[in-house]
Here is the input.
Amino acid sequence: MVSGASRPTTRTRSSSSSAKSGSWAASELPTTIDGGHLPTLFLHGGKDEIVPIETMLDYYDALISAGVMTEVEIDDDAGHAWIDAAPERVVAWFEGQL
Here is the structure.
């Protein structure tokens, strides 16, 4: 789990592991993010080729810069799928938001 004001540094993608055609690109992120954005929990697979991890990290950076409560859970072995930690993390996230 990564949370707080610093960018998660658990992952970098080399040019040899670029996303497949049809993946989401950073250019598809919202163009305006402000402090009114809802708190966000990212659950991401380290091997996701549909939504590249850089896209999530760019979104994370933008939310942190806007002062939005944001956390990240990365499953190193997961692709674009429901990660094993999700049930507990989602419950804990919502309990923490109440």
User: Anything to note?
Assistant: The radius of gyration is 13 Å. The chain has two helices and three strands. The first strand starts at residue 2 and ends at 3. The CA atoms of residues 53 and 59 lie 10 Å apart.
